[in-house]
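In line with agreed milestones, the collection of sequences with tokenised folds has grown. One record among many is set out beneath this paragraph:
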Amino acid sequence: MICRCIVRAAVVATVVGAVLGGVSLINGASEARPGLPAPHPVSTAYVGATGAAAIPALERAARDAPQNVDRLVALADAHLQAVRETGDFSHYLRADGVLHRAARVRPGDSGVQIGLANLALARHDFGAGLLRGRAARAAAPQTVRPYAVLVDALVELGRYQAAGRALQRMIDLRPNLASYARVSYFRELHGDLRGAVKAMRLAVSAGGGTAEGTAYVQTLLGGLEFGRGRLGRARRAYALALRSFPRYLAAEVGLARLDGARGRFPAAISRMRRVVVRLPLPEYVITLGELELAAGRRPAAKEDFALVDAERRLLAANGVNTDVEVALFEADHGDARRGVALGRRAWRGAPSVRSADALSWALTRAGRPRDGLRFARRAVRLGSRDPLLLTHAGLTAKLSGAPAPARRYLSRALADNPRFSPLWAPRARRALRAIS
């Protein structure tokens, strides 16, 4: 997927009420995966496949009509989906080229601007995503798709009040998979896991339109159930995702986390290693390395962590910003001072709860927990129940000599799922015992 502002309860309540009230009255059509382009109508006119499989036919269609913006947008959408399917980040550069060709033909087209916004969001350039989303809304103010990218960009930029208003408008226009999934994430950010699950189930029932869309929302549901400690329900959701889209990587990661939570390290590591072979994203490589550490396999973990910088460089070459992820990695497994520099850059660019957490933890690991505590408080200001974020805040408070908030944060980290991580949950428990 980060103006620093606190979302007022009234804003959240308005969004929640609209979803729960609108669901029984409106049965809107579904859209594609939240945060990524919906399939452009032209795509089904030329190919039955999607993503990487669709690219050759879409390229031929675009060559046959090089001024046809719809065909170019469909081709760019396929390249963006291909990244998710193949892990080949060069598709970002190809999508960029196709979209700029389309922009030269019809610069004010809403579909072109949405495509450029989604590309920017995929690369974690949230400011550019917001500008493109506003341009798309100006071109098509009564359609729902511009609001999807606006909500995503505003959330990642930490502009939560504005995100709530945009989400409300999105729901008013069409309560469907895309809007339900975003309501779910909005609730999750504010600590309402039960409400997040309810909204995500509505997203599941709305349908994804594609096998990958169905797998995506089932995987998100699995993650929410895992966060609540409902491990059996989480496993069922991941299994349903894989039934819809076999070998779906995000669901495989979820199952590896479940195995790790239950101490089944050989199974977790084996599954996670297969994921990394197919798509070596830094976050996946770090997950694998931390499973190795939890299993006592330090040499293997060290080898895994050596891949992170290579993948970061590859992503950077294709325009992807990984400052938040790498700041946390450096804080834990590399150079904490470099983590601080990356965390500061992430915070300047997108002052969200995620970047606040990264900067806070990097400062703490660099021996400056009192400075870190200032950002830890910003990281938890929305009421998040993310256990790793709360563990970071609790350990930072403990090292800062602030036992009361440390107890509060660490207790919350362990409240919903005391097995949230085989590496971090034991650290949270040890710290909480030491304070108590």
